[in-house]
Amino acid sequence: FSFPWQTTFQDGGEEVEDGAVYNVTLKKVQIQQAANKGARWLGGEGDQLPPEHTVRQYETSKIRAIKAGTLEKLVENLLTAFGDADFSYISIFLATYRAFASPRAVLELLLDRFGNLETSSHGEVANLNSLESEMVLRAEIASVLRAWLDHCSEDFREPPDYMCLLKLLDYLKNNMPNSDMESRVQNLLKQFQNQEVEAVDGFCSTSSSDLVDGEELEISNSEEFSSFQDHVVAEQLTYMDVMLFRRVVPYHCLGSIWSQRDKKENKNLAPTVRATITQFNAVTKCVISTILRTRELKIQQRAKIIEKWIHIAHECRILKNFSSLRAIISALQSNSIYRLKTTWMCVSKDILLMYEELSEIFSDHDNYLTSRELLMKEATSKFANLDSSEKENQKKSQKRLQLQKNKGVMQGTVPYLGTFLTDLIMLDTALQDYVEGGLINFEKRRREFEVIAQIKLLQSSCNSYCLTPDQKFIQWFRRQRHLTEEESYKLSREAEAAADTNILSPKSQKSMVKRISTLFLGTDVFTPPKEQPLKSTPVGGSSGESTDSASVSSCEFNHSETEDVCVTPVSSPEDPLKKSSVGSDKGYDSDKGSISSEKGSSKGSICDPGSGSDSGSIPARDSGSVPSGAPRVLPVYNRQSGGSCIIRVSMDGLHASVYKSILITNQDRIPDVTQRALLKHNLEPGAVEDYELVQVISEDKELVFPRDANVFYGMNSHVNFDFILRKKA
C-alpha cells in the first residue's frame, strides 16, 4: 500500500439553526491507494498499479464555521467549535468579542448558562445524568477559560472590584477545587490588586515639570543631541517603541472601539494605542525641536542636524523599526522643516538620496503596497532586507547590517501601527455589525482577526530584540520641550530669513535648486497651497494639551478616521522643493496642526443626480443594487464598485485630514449621508437641514450637491472622494 495524501474542499452551503447561521465546507481526504497481486501483469512496478487501475479510498468530513448568531450561540460555539473542526474560532472570538459584548456578559453566559451542570442545555450533553457528560463539559469550559487567561488576561482587570475574576474564582472553587486554574486566578487577582492602574508609559511624558532650565536647554539642545551616536539614538528609540508596542492590547485597535475615542466619555479608551501614538508624536516633535530651537545655528550646522536625523532614520530601518522611521520622515516633511529650502541645499547629495529612498517606503501608491509588503517580509526575517539604488548608501547599509549580524542576535519588527488601525477602521466602516434577524455578523470578526493576527505576530517578533536602555539619552529625550505649530513656524521663518543673506552665490544656488527639484519631483506631483500665516490659537505640544489626545491622522491613510490634524508639507511658490505625493503622506498627528489656505470661491454645481456634473457629464457607473447583507465586493475609498464606496467627510473649518470614513451606496441621497456624517462627528443628527455637503474637486473648486441629490451618482469619481460638511449661510 502507498498513501499519497490529498485533500480537496467543497462548498457545502449554509446551515440555519435557531439563532445561528453556519458556513459548511466538505473536506475530502484521499487516505489510501490499493494494489493487488496482478499489478505487475497490468504494467505496474512492484505492487504499484498503473493510474488507470488504481483503487482510491476517500474520507469526507464536514467543517461548520459559524457565520452569524446571537451572543448566546456565539458563546455556546466556544464549547462546540472543536467538534465542528472550526479550530481557530476560540482565538477569533477572544480577540474580537469586545466589539459586541463585555467580559462580564460572556463570562455569565459561559458559567451560568453552560457551566451550571444542573440547568445546562448544551446540545452535546443534553442528558446530564452521565458523569462522563459532566466531565466533557467541564473540560470544554476549562479549555476556554485557560485560553482566555493565556491570551486576554487584561480583560479581567476591573479595579477596584474585579467582579469577573471573583465570579470566576467562585465557579472554580465549586466545580474545580484545588485545581491549577484556581491557583492561577487567585494569583492574577492578587497581582491586579497590588498594582496601580496602568498609566501611559513614562517614556512619552512631555510635561513641563520635566524641564530643568528652559533657557539652558535651548542653548545646549543641539550640542547635546550631536553628542549621541546615530546608532545609539536609533537603538534607544527602538527600545522605547518595542516596550510600548508589546503592551498594545490588540482589541484596542478594532475599528468599532478606536473610532469612538473622540467622545468625551471615552477619553481613557484604548490607552495602549494612545501611548504608542504619544511616543510617535514625541519623536516627531523632538526632530523638529532639535532642528529649529537653537536660533544661533548657522545654516551648515542646521543642515548637519537634518543629515544626522536622516542617518538615524536609516539606522531605524536597519533595526526594522518602522514606527520611529516613519516619525522622523514625517517630521522632516513637516511644513516648518520642509520650507527651509536654503538649509536643504546644504544637505549632501548622497544623504538626500538616502532620505528619498526612506520616504518611498511610505509611498501611498496602491494603498501603501510597498510598506505593507516590506513589513510582512521583514516580520519573518532575522535581519533587515536592505536594498539601495545608490552604491555608496548600499555599501554603508551592508556594513551596518553586517555589524548587526555579527552580534548573533535576531531582530524583531516594530510596525507603523497606523497601517493596521486604518485597515480595521476600513473593515468596521464597510461591513455590517448585524445581519438579517439581528444576528451578530461573525464573518466581520473573522476578517478583523486577519489584521489582529498580524499585530500579534509582530508583537511576538519583538521578543527577539536585545536592547538595553541608555538613561542619559532617555532623560534627554524626556526633557525636550516640544514646540507648538505656531512656535515652530515662527522659528522656521526666522531661520530662513537669516539664511537669505547666506554665502551661496546665485550660480550655486540655481544648481542646488535644480538638483533638489529633480530629486523630489515625481510623476504625481503634490501642489501645495500658498503659504499662510498661522492663527494665534495655541496648538498642542507644551502649551498644556496632553498628547494623549493625538490620533492616527490620515494623509497617509486613505481610509482612516482621524481626530487631530497631521503635518502637511506646505511651501510657498518660490520654494525649490516641490513635493511629490510621498510628501503629503503622513502618519500620526506629528505637529498638532497644519497651515492651510482657505478654499476659493469658485464652485461647481449639479442640478440633478443624473444630469451631469460641472465637468460636463457623469461617467458610467455600476448601477446594480446593493444586497441587504454585507457587500459582496468590499467597498474602498476612491473607487466605486458593487454599487458602493467609501467617502471621507470633514467638517468645515477643520483641516481636511480630520475626517470620518462613511460607507455610501447607490441608493443614498444627501439627507441620509449628511445625517450619518453628523453622527460620526458626534453632532446632532436632527440638524440635517442646517448643513450642505460639498465635494472638494481642487484647491479652488468644489461641487455643491442639491438637497435630494444621489451622492453616489452625483459625485465626481475622477478626484479624491473627499467631502466637506458645511453649515448653510
Automatic annotation (TrEMBL):
Gene3D superfamilies: Phosphatidylinositol 3-kinase Catalytic Subunit, Chain A, domain 1, Ras guanine-nucleotide exchange factors catalytic domain, Son of sevenless (SoS) protein Chain: S domain 1. Residues 544-557 have a biased composition (Polar residues). Residues 527-634 are annotated as: Disordered. InterPro entries: RA_dom, Ras-like_GEF, Ras-like_Gua-exchang_fac_N, Ras_G-nucl-exch_fac_CS, Ras_GEF_dom_sf, RASGEF_cat_dom, RASGEF_cat_dom_sf, Ubiquitin-like_domsf. The keyword Transport does not apply. GO terms for molecular function: guanyl-nucleotide exchange factor activity. This is RGL1 protein. It comes from Chaetops frenatus (Rufous rock-jumper).
